[in-house]
Design brief:
heterotrimer; A mainly alpha (319); B alpha/beta (252); C mainly alpha (307); A: 319 residues; mainly alpha; ABC transporter involved in vitamin B12 uptake, BtuC; two-stranded antiparallel sheet; globular; C: 307 residues; 11 helices; 2 strands; 3% strand; binds adenosine-5'-triphosphate; binds magnesium ion
């Protein structure tokens, strides 16, 4: 019984969220308020990135402090072709996913040979490497970043030059990515990943080459986040190395933890809470980072279940 | 009898401590081979070297004629060697059924399957439930493993090893911390399993050892001081002096 | 090759290397002993620089500025340890990373609040502001020479403390094998606090010594902290010796890469492609070094024992 209630509460919330997201452009269109649309666009893109991070961090126990690298790589894979006048959407998306995957494969192969603190620091260092790499390439704007003149072109059928279309493109991307991740975590592969987080030695002992499975998982997460990066490039029409600053990676972890690692929608809640907090606090005071930092410390010390944990708690209590 | 496992001059040192020193041992197919010895004798180290959790400094291990000395533990598992851990090692935040189902899954092809729900997969669940029944874990299967009792953890240890359908089963003190009744049950289970499996059993409980073992090896300070039938071991002077003669150890 | 430039760059590398070591040695000890990931170590580097700036302003002397700022930074470190860090030791690495990331945000905002968004230039006293001819034709700024001497002296002192004194032995034992410390019945809490405070002081000192060159600025600790991580990864967690060698190595390779890589690449590539590739490659050089070392030695050059 208890389980059933929790389930329905979750499903209810999910349905409500996606209904709101679906009808939002109509509301903003009527009230002529593009600001909310932009906010939600950013939120959804970050939600995809956070969900991909949750795949390795929450399910796999791989604490990557460099996940923002893929946002940057994905965005540059839109920006650099656009710079040369190539606006072919499928090609850009393919580049974004493939480049992210290759980067994840190479760095993951090295990172995953190490454990614990080493892993955290090395993922961080590799992202910093990409960051400095792009900072020092003057051709693509270096420090100042690169303006993307044209969005990805998917032909006349899906025209994301239009803001409303871009919104639905991102929304559908979010739904598909969440569904994919949901499927993966429930699959045989997902079980191996979960087992490897829980007790890697035992997993090896019963016959799994955990290194390989984790590496594949790491690559999948990188690909999904690279895709989010391609969306981000299209949404902001601008890319700069700052997107992969290590603070950006920290923010992604924060979203995952804030939302709760255990569930599918956790990262979405986390991204939403993050974007809204950021918007709200920065309107309150110039020193909003302080409140943000303090909040982060509080979450760590007192509320490790995250928002999703609170939902579970409420679901149980209603019973 | 053909040996299924041949161990020759196996060594392992930890800093200054020699945990296993030139171990030579043949394990025959189908036997239960007990390894006994005082605390710190190197029994667990030996098992870990056989399972691949520890690398051997020196020496060779042949399993069914294949040299496996440098093979990682996951590959040895696929060849048919399974172990249990003296200090329980389980996926504590997954369910009982998940633990065993994973062991089944490891031995039913690759796991690069991303789509079907593994928890609804009867090819995994049925064998897992069968093994759980075999070891007498009959309670609900969807509880988080952490919540189980110590005895149940020990049973699950064995269930996971069994679920890989091993030819050679390495049991590291399976009865440790169990009550008298539970121990009797486990002895009965191991007796039943005897057909078709070879076992190396480390155990301090001498009742269990003498009622199960076909042969016994005695280790002291990383070395084998005797190998033989239970009768021979009982009569062996060296063993009496080093080990069985010690009243305290006999009762533990 | 231009020998004057070459020697100057070696000295520059050494100067940056010893500063990096000051930051990394505290970090590696904290890692080793407490198994604690402190992202906010760079914030103490920044705080040190700002304190030094303010105290220099007040006392009108860079020397007094430093002398006052060192204990002040250590006190900040100790307070942070007691209020927040201490509660985190028993929690997992993810918690460390998140909470100390939160600390960075807090520190940056506080500095912004107290000192404003602009950087803070710190004037050098006249005696340090000149240059010295150390070899025929080779002149080097006096202050940078002082940094090298101070850094090397501190490295030697640290080495002696760790190898020759009782508390140093404990720290070293703890850094490579944590269970030891508990077994020896030491007051762990106090030891942790002290090590944290000392680490803070060293990080702060590094910040104080760099700031007359670059000026104190918000976020100055956030880039160097990752380089310090690279140093620890290369050197091996918990190893002060490893941290020293790696810090010097990393800065050497970095400075050499920045000054000579394009010349070198021009031997292999066309001038034009060398000029585009060199900056990017030299920016990534130390990370490539790290990756290469990790492939061969996943635990770094001086891996911790017994773990
Ligand atoms: N990982 C390790 N690092 C250092 N020393 C070890 C390690 N594992 C075992 N040892 C040492 O090696 C020796 C043999 O240990 P081992 O665990 O194999 O003994 P055992 O026979 O299984 O003892 P017990 O009956 O207590 O389980 C002991 O002295 C032990 O302290
Ligand atoms: Mg043992």
């Amino acid at each position: 019984m208890e389980k059933a209630t929790r389930f329905t509460l979750r499903v209810k919330i999910t349905v409500v969220i996606f209904l709101v997201l679906f009808f939002l452009p109509i509301y903003t269109g009527l009230t002529d308020n593009g600001f909310y649309l932009d906010l939600v666009n950013r939120l959804m893109i970050l939600a995809i990135a956070a969900a991909s991070l949750n795949l390795i961090l929450g399910h796999g126990g791989m604490i990557s402090f460099g996940h923002a690298a893929y946002l940057g790589i994905g965005a540059y894979c839109v920006g650099i072709p656009a710079y040369y006048g190539v606006d072919n959407g499928p090609l850009q998306i393919f580049l974004a996913v493939a480049a992210s995957g290759i980067f994840a494969l190479i760095t993951g192969a090295i990172c995953l040979r190490t454990k614990g603190v080493y892993f955290i620091m090395i993922t961080m260092a590799f992202t910093q490497m990409v960051f400095f790499g792009f900072v020092s390439v003057e051709e693509y704007g270096g420090d100042d970043g690169l303006v993307i003149d044209t969005r990805s072109n998917f032909g006349s059928f899906i025209n994301i030059q239009d803001n409303i279309n871009l919104y639905y493109f991102i929304l559908i991307s979010l739904i598909i990515c969440l569904f994919l991740i949901h499927k993966i975590t429930k699959s045989r592969f997902g079980l191996v990943i979960e087992g490897s987080r829980s007790n890697e030695q035992r997993m090896r002992s019963i016959g799994f080459d955990t290194y390989r499975y984790r590496l594949i998982c790491y690559v999948i997460a990188g690909c999904i986040c690279g895709y989010a990066g391609a969306l981000l490039g299209n949404f902001t029409n601008f890319i700069s190395p700052e997107m992969m600053d290590w603070a950006a990676s920290g923010e992604l972890i924060f979203m995952v933890i804030l939302g709760g690692t255990g569930s599918l929608l956790g990262p979405v809640f986390g991204a939403a809470a993050f974007v809204i907090l950021e918007e709200w606090l920065s309107s309150l005071t110039l020193y909003w980072h302080f409140i943000f930092g303090a909040l982060l410390i509080m979450v760590v010390l007192f509320a490790r279940g995250g928002i999703s944990g609170i939902v579970t708690y409420l679901g149980n209590r209603k019973q | 009898m053909t040996p299924i496992l041949k161990i020759s001059s196996l060594c392992k040192q930890f800093g200054g401590i020699t945990a296993t020193n030139n171990i030579d041992l043949n394990i025959n197919e189908g036997e239960i081979h007990a390894v006994i010895g005082p605390n710190g004798a190197g029994k667990t180290t030996l098992i870990s070297q056989l399972s691949g959790d520890l690398k051997a400094d020196k020496g060779a291990i042949l399993f069914q004629g294949d040299l496996i000395t440098n093979m990682p533990s996951n590959k040895r598992s696929l060849l048919g060697i399974a172990r249990t851990f003296q200090i329980t090692s389980l996926m504590l935040d997954m369910s009982t059924l998940d633990n065993v189902a994973l062991a089944v899954q490891a031995h039913s092809g690759h796991s690069y399957r991303f789509w079907q729900d593994a928890r609804q997969d009867n090819q995994l669940i049925e064998p897992a439930l069968y093994v759980l029944k075999q070891v007498g874990l009959l309670g609900p299967k969807d509880i988080i493993t952490r919540e189980l009792s110590h005895g149940e953890h020990r049973q699950l240890e064995i269930a996971m090893a069994l679920a890989t359908q091993p030819k050679l089963l390495l049991l590291d003190e399976p009865m440790a911390g169990m009550g008298g009744e539970e121990t009797q049950k486990l002895i009965a289970i191991l007796k039943r399993l005897k057909t078709g499996k070879t076992m190396i059993l480390i155990e301090h409980d001498m009742n269990a050892v003498f009622s199960l073992a076909d042969r016994i090896t005695v280790m002291v300070y990383g070395e084998i001081i005797a190998t033989g039938s239970p009768k021979e071991i009982r009569a062996n002077q060296k063993v009496k002096a080093a080990y069985l003669g010690d009243e305290e150890l006999q009762t533990c | 090759m231009d020998w004057v430039l070459f020697v100057t760059q070696i000295l520059n590398g050494l100067q940056l290397g010893v500063l990096l070591f000051l930051l990394a040695s505290g970090l590696t000890l904290i890692f080793g002993i407490m198994d604690f990931v402190n992202l906010a170590h760079g914030s103490l580097y920044m705080i040190g620089a700002y304190f030094c700036g303010t105290f220099t302003d007040i006392t009108d002397s860079f020397f007094y500025g430093i002398i006052l700022a060192i204990p002040a930074t250590a006190v900040v470190g100790v307070i942070v340890e007691i209020i927040i860090i201490r509660r985190l030791y028993s929690q997992d690495h993810l918690d460390h990373v998140l909470a100390t990331f939160g600390l960075i945000l807090c520190f940056d905002a506080l500095v912004h609040f107290a000192w404003g968004p602009e950087g803070m230039a710190i004037p050098l006293p006249a005696i340090l502001d000149g240059q010295i001819e150390i070899l025929p034709d080779i002149v080097f700024p006096t202050f940078r020479l002082l940094i090298i001497t101070t850094g090397l002296t501190l490295a030697i002192i640290l080495y002696l403390v760790i190898t020759r004194t009782r508390s140093g032995m404990l720290i070293r034992a703890g850094a490579s094998n944590r269970t030891m410390i508990g077994a020896l019945g030491i007051d762990i809490k106090t030891l942790f606090t002290l090590v944290f405070g000392a680490g803070a002081a060293m990080a702060g000192l590094a910040g104080m010594m760099i700031s007359p060159i670059t000026e104190a600025s918000i976020g100055m600790g956030n880039d160097i902290i990752i380089v310090a991580f690279v140093v620890i990864i290369i050197g091996g967690i918990g190893s002060v010796k490893g941290a020293f060698i790696a810090a010097i190595l990393v800065r050497f390779i970095d400075t050499m890469g920045r000054s000579f890589l394009d010349t070198f690449l021009k031997l292999l590539l066309s001038a034009e492609s060398a000029e585009t590739a060199a900056p990017a490659l030299s920016a990534m050089l130390i990370y490539i070094l790290m990756a290469t070392i990790l492939i061969f030695r996943p635990q770094g050059l001086f891996p911790p024992r017994g773990r």
